[in-house]
Amino acid sequence: MPDVKRGSMDLVKLTRGQSGQHGIPMPLWLQGALESAQLAIIVALLVMVPVGAVYFSGGFGNQGFDAAARLAGQAWLLIHAVPLQVEVLTGASSGDIQSGLLSLIPYGLTLIPFLFAWRAGRRLARASYADQLWQALLGALAVYAALGLATGYICSTANVSASLAAATLIPLLPIGLGLVVGARREAGSWGRLIGVDAVAWMAKSSQYSRWTGSYVWSALRAAFLAIVVLLAASALLFAVNLAVHWADVVSVYEGLKAGPMGSAALTLAQLGYFPNLAVWTMAWSSGSGFAFGVGSSIGPLGTVVPPVPAIPLLGALPVGQLSWGVLALILPVLAGVLAGWWFLREGENHFDEWLAIKVPQRWISASLSTLGLGLLVGACAGVFGAVMAWLSSGSAGFGRLTNLGPDPLTTAAWLACEVAIGVVLGHAVAPWLEGARQRSSLDEDFEPFEES
């Protein structure tokens, strides 16, 4: 069997079975279909474990195992970002029915199918030429769409249902993204993945186009860096706040009396929403805040929240006037400072070079280029923040809980302004920071000569 370099996207057309005889290789579309079916079954089994544990511990009362299986299927759909239509009987005597859309997606649990799809994408990339990978991906997506359709049809009940179109198409988003990212990781570059040499394509463009592209690309990366740093700091802030209010969280657990299995399943569900809560904390630290129900407002300067459901994590909500809340507004500015410093070290400020040629006064050209950089990076960070705020928000069904999460436009405006200020400050002081760092490095490397 010829030697195949890992990640080279080569294809061995003839394989040897266990008997050592040559055989016809599996078609790529069929291999993709099998990988997709395996992925869906593994995720379904992982969902069935906590649901089955609650069922066998008596958590479903007199309901049969079919009710638990349908609940697992509905959880499978929600994990894949499929919204569910929920109907609840609010009054036994009056027969009033409230209906709403459950669209708050637990992105921490959505990472499970994404990571399995990432693994499947790497396996499919190793078996494909660059111009044939689409066959494996198409087979995988077609099978997953069929499984989503079947799940949406079988697991829909009178109280909880999913649109068949949504159950078919929406799961393809996290799965398709995982497949592409995994294939890109195995291929080593986008050019080898899609068969197009991006470097050669860019070489045909003009010098000004290349400079503009490098400048904008570096600005986008700087904005992404600012958002990642801010999100990490927000997650740490949320963890610290959760530790401070841990006694309140434990008291809610004790009040629920859900038992060991029920408490474990509830904890797992709450862990799935940790990425959402990190984004909400990011919006909170920006000053825009977020909502937990219609008419509520949770921000760094104060919180107005009506009574909330008995969910343990909600015991960590900040309440009342916070004297230290204004300090949280520093986090987006500091993230912008790091982004501005990184941009200077990247060395792609071609806009500043162009202005230095057009404007003889250096202090004017440097000020204009730094201001323009701050506006561009701030706007990009605002767009990233708005997308994250939109994805993390949603509805928990009906009533006041139809409005959960930050407002995308308000979050974008606050983040854009604060990150822009930080970028201007960071890019302005970066030359002195770089000079101090280089002088410190030279001092460490310098060894004085001593005569013997």
UniProtKB/TrEMBL annotation:
Membrane-spanning segments: 36-56, 101-121, 133-154, 160-183, 219-244, 264-283, 290-310, 322-344, 365-391, 411-433
One Pfam assignment: DUF6350
Keyword Nucleus tagged: no
InterPro entries: DUF6350 (IPR045931)
Record's keyword terms, sorted: Membrane, Transmembrane, Transmembrane helix
Domain of life of the organism encoding this protein: Bacteria
Protein name per the record: Integral membrane protein
Organism field: Psychromicrobium silvestre
Lineage of source species: Bacteria, Bacillati, Actinomycetota, Actinomycetes, Micrococcales
